[in-house]
Design brief:
- By secondary structure, the chain is mostly helical.
- Helices cover 72% and strands 0% of the residues.
- It has 15 helices and no strands.
- Helix 6 (112-125) runs antiparallel to helix 7 and helix 13 packs antiparallel against helix 14 (260-274).
- It is elongated, with a radius of gyration of 25 Å.
- It starts with 22 loop residues before the first helix and ends in a 13-residue tail after the last helix.
- The relative contact order is 0.06.
C-alpha cells in the first residue's frame, strides 16, 4: 500500500493595527476590525468588502491586503488571493506571512514552481526560522522528483527545530523514494536504514503519529526485520484501532512469522474494520480467503477480541 504525504497546512492570523490618534487613520483601522469580525463570523463576502475599503483608504495597509488574500482564498478565488498577497509584499518585501500564504495560494492553483519560489523567499527572509516553509518546499521538490533537494530542505528544517515530527516523516519518505531509484543493494539498504531512522525520529517526537508507525513497519519489512515490523504495526493500530492498511499488513506479517493464531486474529479485525469501505473490497476478499485457508489448514478459530495483540 502506498505511503501518503502528509497534507500541507495553511494558517490564518488576524492582525489588529494599533489605534492611532489622528481621525484620518482611524477609518481604515475600524474597517479592518469590522472585516476581521465579519470573517470570524463566517461572513466572507462582507469581510472582503470591508478589507477592500480599508485598502482604498490606506493603500499601504499591508495587514488589510494580507487578510483580503485570506478571505479570497476561502472562496477559492486564487488569482484575487495571489494579487492581494502580492500587494502586501509590495509594501513589505519581507512580510513572511504573506510570502508563505502566497506560496500556498500558488500551490492551490497548481503552480508548484511558483510555490517553491515563494517558500524559498520565506526561507531567505527567515534564515533562522521558516520550518514549515522548508518542509513544504521539500514536499514539492519530492513531487517534482528532485529528491536530493527535498532531503536538503527537510534536514534544514530539522536542524532549526528537531522536534517537528512532520520533517522527519517526510525525510523518511524521501529516503524511500531515493532507495527505489538505486540498483546497488548496499546503497539501497543504507537508504532503507536511514528511512527507518527518520520514521523512528518522527514517532519519538509524536508517539501518536500512526502513519509514521505504519511507514516504519514497511521500512523494517524492506530490511527483513519481521519482529520490528510487527512491533511497529502494533503501535500503529494501538494509536488507530481500526487502521485497515496496518491490520491487513499485520495479519500478513504474522503469517510470514508462522503464527496462524495471530494471523487469524488480525485478518478478522481487518475484515471487521474494512468490510464497509468500498476501496478495500478486493483486499477484504483476500483476507476472507486467508481466514478460510488458515482455519482449514490448522483448525483454528478466529479470535473474537478487538484488542491489540500483546507486545
Amino acid at each position: 500500500m502506498t505511503v501518503r504525504h502528509i497534507l500541507l497546512s495553511v494558517f490564518f492570523v488576524a492582525f489588529f493595527a494599533p489605534a492611532l490618534a489622528s481621525a484620518q487613520s482611524k477609518a481604515p483601522d475600524e474597517l479592518f476590525k469590522q472585516g476581521n469580525d465579519a470573517f470570524n463570523e463566517g461572513q466572507i463576502d462582507k469581510a472582503i468588502e470591508l478589507y477592500a475599503q480599508a485598502t482604498v483608504k490606506r493603500k499601504d495597509f499591508k495587514e488589510a491586503w494580507y487578510n483580503l488574500g485570506i478571505a479570497y482564498g476561502r472562496k477559492k478565488q486564487f488569482d484575487k488571493e495571489i494579487s492581494s498577497y502580492e500587494k502586501a509584499i509590495g509594501i513589505d518585501a519581507k512580510y513572511t506571512k504573506a510570502l508563505y500564504n502566497l506560496a500556498i495560494a500558488y500551490e492551490d492553483k497548481g503552480s508548484d514552481d511558483k510555490a517553491v519560489e515563494y517558500y524559498e523567499k520565506v526561507v531567505e527572509a527567515e534564515p533562522e526560522r521558516g520550518v514549515d516553509a522548508r518542509i513544504n518546499a521539500g514536499i514539492l521538490y519530492a513531487r517534482k522528483g528532485q529528491l536530493d533537494k527535498a532531503v536538503e530542505f527537510y534536514k534544514a528544517a530539522i536542524k532549526i527545530d528537531p522536534n517537528v515530527a512532520d520533517a522527519h516523516f517526510n525525510l523518511g519518505i524521501a529516503y524511500s523514494k531515493q532507495a527505489a531509484k538505486v540498483d546497488d543493494d548496499t546503497e539501497k539498504k543504507k537508504l532503507w536504514s536511514a528511512e527507518a531512522d527518520a520514521y523512528k525520529a518522527a514517532t519519538s517526537k509524536n508517539p501518536s503519529y500512526h502513519k509514521a508507525w505504519y511507514n516504519l513497519a514497511i521500512a523494517f519489512k524492506k530490511l527483513g526485520n519481521i519482529d520490528e515490523e510487527i512491533s511497529a504495526y502494533l503501535k500503529a493500530v494501538g494509536v488507530k484501532k481500526n487502521y485497515p492498511q496496518a491490520l491487513f499488513n499485520l495479519a500478513h506479517a504474522y503469517e510470514e512469522k508462522k503464527d496462524p493464531v495471530k494471523a487469524l486474529e488480525y485478518w478478522g479485525r481487518y475484515v471487521r474494520a474494512a468490510e464497509a469501505i468500498p476501496n478495500e473490497k478486493k483486499y477484504v476478499e483476500t483476507a476472507k480467503q486467508r481466514i478460510a485457508l488458515l482455519k482449514k489448514e490448522d483448525a483454528i478459530s478466529v479470535p473474537t477480541t478487538d484488542e491489540p495483540a500483546a507486545k
